[in-house]
């Protein structure tokens, strides 16, 4: 963030477990260079849940994988426990990765269909030749609400999507991680099961002192599980702040549009959503200036000429917008 003049976004140094600065992820394709993530910066405090939200294609999952060095980012810095990840050798990365684990979006396809559940959950432990592997596997399977005596010898196809996601969470917990990146862990599940998995993640966070990065495209999902929310659009961060502040008073028009798109279970409530039209621009040729300007009803000439920088709008709340709608409301 120092490169963007946003060092003031940082919490106290002793609280930070993960620091991402000017992260860049680019892919070479036949048509040119895909700018998946462009200069993204954020910090994660120890023990908090940071919600990373935005519509499909904005670079959320790419950011999560880049933090894991899967693959290594094209540029920028990722510091975990004050250790620069981008400069580590493969052997050093292998030794560090047990502390950084990931829960994937599709719980069924993320599990090896040929292996039994005890082998799936305990694979990392067996690689590191842990003498307590069997006991640890039984412990974490129990912790996620399954009976190890019943499920251990079965295979993934014998379980529902929700049960498979519980198994995926158990596999993560087995390695005793510090940070868990949850890559849309409930988007493939029924609504009733989503609530169970969200509650389970909250319980596991408290029980095992975890720090979570919760990736989702639905702001309604992250509302109750995130301490802070970071909103992404086309590879850029457009707003970040405490969960309550972002929901009560969004400062970026894109954040406002995402919130207004959340269904309200009350037919008497009249909502006039912000008029956001069109599709997400191609990351092969992102718009100049503000990347949201081609869909923003508040865009002006300055938005095409000058890229907005992060600025403070409240305690711990920052926005990258020249003409934020909340400022107009305040005026």
UniProtKB/TrEMBL annotation:
<protein>
    <submittedName>
        <fullName>Peptide/nickel transport system ATP-binding protein</fullName>
    </submittedName>
</protein>
<dbReference type="InterPro" id="IPR027417">
    <property type="entry name" value="P-loop_NTPase"/>
</dbReference>
<dbReference type="Pfam" id="PF00005">
    <property type="entry name" value="ABC_tran"/>
</dbReference>
<keyword id="KW-0813">Transport</keyword>
<keyword id="KW-0067">ATP-binding</keyword>
<dbReference type="GO" id="GO:0055085">
    <property type="term" value="P:transmembrane transport"/>
</dbReference>
<dbReference type="InterPro" id="IPR003593">
    <property type="entry name" value="AAA+_ATPase"/>
</dbReference>
<comment type="similarity">
    <text>Belongs to the ABC transporter superfamily.</text>
</comment>
<dbReference type="InterPro" id="IPR017871">
    <property type="entry name" value="ABC_transporter-like_CS"/>
</dbReference>
<dbReference type="GO" id="GO:0015833">
    <property type="term" value="P:peptide transport"/>
</dbReference>
<dbReference type="InterPro" id="IPR013563">
    <property type="entry name" value="Oligopep_ABC_C"/>
</dbReference>
<feature type="domain" description="ABC transporter">
    <location>
        <begin position="18"/>
        <end position="259"/>
    </location>
</feature>
<keyword id="KW-0547">Nucleotide-binding</keyword>
<dbReference type="InterPro" id="IPR003439">
    <property type="entry name" value="ABC_transporter-like_ATP-bd"/>
</dbReference>
<dbReference type="GO" id="GO:0016887">
    <property type="term" value="F:ATP hydrolysis activity"/>
</dbReference>
<dbReference type="Pfam" id="PF08352">
    <property type="entry name" value="oligo_HPY"/>
</dbReference>
<dbReference type="GO" id="GO:0005524">
    <property type="term" value="F:ATP binding"/>
</dbReference>
<dbReference type="InterPro" id="IPR050319">
    <property type="entry name" value="ABC_transp_ATP-bind"/>
</dbReference>
């Amino acid at each position: 963030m120092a490169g963007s003049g946003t060092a003031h976004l940082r919490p106290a140094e002793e609280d930070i477990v993960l620091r991402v600065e000017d992260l860049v992820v680019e892919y070479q394709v036949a048509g040119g260079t895909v700018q998946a993530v462009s200069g993204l910066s954020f910090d994660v405090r120890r023990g908090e849940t940071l919600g990373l939200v935005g519509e499909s294609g904005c670079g959320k999952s790419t950011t999560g994988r880049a933090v894991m060095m899967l693959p290594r980012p094209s540029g920028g810095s990722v510091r975990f426990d004050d250790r620069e990840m981008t400069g580590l050798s493969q052997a050093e990365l292998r030794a560090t990765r047990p502390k950084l684990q990931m829960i994937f979006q599709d719980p069924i396809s993320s599990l090896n269909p040929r292996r039994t559940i005890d082998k799936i959950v305990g694979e990392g432990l067996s690689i590191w030749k842990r003498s307590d592997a069997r006991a640890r596997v039984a412990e974490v399977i129990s912790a996620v609400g399954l009976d190890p005596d019943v499920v251990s010898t079965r295979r993934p196809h014998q379980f529902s999507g929700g049960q498979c996601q519980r198994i995926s969470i158990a596999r993560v917990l087995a390695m005793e991680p510090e940070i868990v990146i949850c890559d849309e862990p409930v988007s493939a599940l029924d609504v009733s099961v989503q609530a169970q998995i969200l509650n389970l993640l909250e319980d596991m966070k408290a029980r095992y002192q975890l720090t979570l990065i919760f990736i989702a495209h639905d702001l309604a999902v992250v509302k109750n599980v995130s301490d802070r929310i970071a909103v992404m659009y086309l590879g850029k961060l457009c707003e970040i702040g405490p969960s309550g502040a972002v929901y009560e008073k969004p400062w970026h028009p894109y954040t406002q549009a995402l919130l207004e798109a959340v269904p309200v279970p009350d037919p008497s409530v009249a909502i006039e959503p912000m008029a956001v039209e069109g599709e997400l621009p191609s990351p092969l040729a992102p718009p100049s200036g503000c990347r949201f300007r081609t869909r923003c009803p508040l865009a002006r000439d300055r938005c095409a000429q000058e890229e907005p920088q992060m600025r403070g709008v409240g305690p711990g709340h920052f926005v990258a917008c020249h003409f934020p709608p909340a400022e107009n409301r305040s005026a």
